[in-house]
Amino acid sequence: MTLDLQAAARTALACLDLTSLNDADTPADITALCRRAQTAYGPVAAVCVWPRFVAQARAALPPAIKVAAVADFPDGALDLAVALADIAAIAQAGGDEVDVVLPWRALLSGKATEVAEFLAEVRHASRPLTLKVIIESGELGTAERIAQATRLALAAGADFVKTSTGKTATGATPEAAAAMLKEIAASGLSAAGFKASGGVRSVVDAAGYIAQTEAALGADALNPQRLRFGASGLLTDIEAVLSGGPRTAATSAY
C-alpha cells in the first residue's frame, strides 16, 4: 500500500506537542515556539515547555492549543515532593497538561509498589489536567519492562503513556510502541492514549506510529485525544510535505 504522506502529515500536525525543553531556553525561545505552533496549515495540539514558561505560553496561545509542561523531568527520580511541586506550578500558571517521568530506575530495581504509589499521588495532584506518563522505554530495555511500566501508568489513571523524555540515547521505537499499544488495547480503557517522543523527526516516522496506533486502537484513535507526537523538529518536515516543498532527508526506523 502506498504511503499517503499528505494524510500522515495532517494527522501528525493535529497530534503534535511542539516541544522546547532545552536547559538554556529563554522567554524569546518560547515566544518563537508559540508563533511556530500556529501554522499556515492549522494549529498543533499543544506546546510542551518547562513549568517556568507555562504562564507565558498560555498567554501567547489561543485556547485550542494546549499548554503542557514537564514534571520530575528528565531524571525520573522517585521523589514525590519534586513531582508535586512541578505539578502545582503548572496548574497555578494555567497549564492544561502534565508530562511526568515515571521513576524508571526504581522500577528496574524492583520497586514496582513504590512506583505505583508515586503515580497514584501524581494522578490525584494533577486532576483535572491531562496526565501523560513518560516511561523512558529506551532505558527499560525489554518489552516486558515496557509493558509493566505501561500497565502501572494506566492503572494509576494516566491519560497517555509516552515513550521517552528525548534526553536518553534511545527514544521512541516501533518495538516500544508495539508493547505500549498492546497494553493500552488490552486495558479496555477507551480514552487512554499513546505518545511517541524522542527521535520522531520525519513524517515517515510519524506515519509508522500512526499505522501502529490505528492497528492497535482503531481509526477512531487517530486524533489528539488518543495520539500525540512529542517533537521539536517534526514540524519542519510536516510543513514541507504539506507545502510540496523540498524536504531534508532523515533516517527513519520505518
Written overview of the protein:
The chain is of the alpha/beta class. It has a single domain, classed as Aldolase class I (TIM Barrel, Alpha-Beta Barrel). The protein is 46% helix and 16% strand. It has 11 helices and 10 strands. It has helices at residues 5-14, 27-36, 54-60, 80-92, 104-108, 112-126, 137-140, 143-156, 174-187, 203-217, 234-243, and strands at 16-19, 38-39, 42-43, 46-49, 66-71, 97-101, 130-134, 160-162, 193-197, 227-231. The strands form 2 sheets. The protein has an 8-stranded parallel barrel, surrounded by 8 helices. α4 (80-92) links the parallel β5 (66-71) and β6 (97-101). The radius of gyration is 17 Å and the shape is globular. The two termini are 14 Å apart.
Which secondary structure elements does this structure contain, and how are they paired or packed?
Layout: H1 5-14, E1 16-19, H2 27-36, E2 38-39, E3 42-43, E4 46-49, H3 54-60, E5 66-71, H4 80-92, E6 97-101, H5 104-108, H6 112-126, E7 130-134, H7 137-140, H8 143-156, E8 160-162, H9 174-187, E9 193-197, H10 203-217, E10 227-231, H11 234-243
Parallel strand pairs: 1-4, 1-10, 4-5, 5-6, 6-7, 7-8, 8-9, 9-10
Antiparallel strand pairs: 2-3
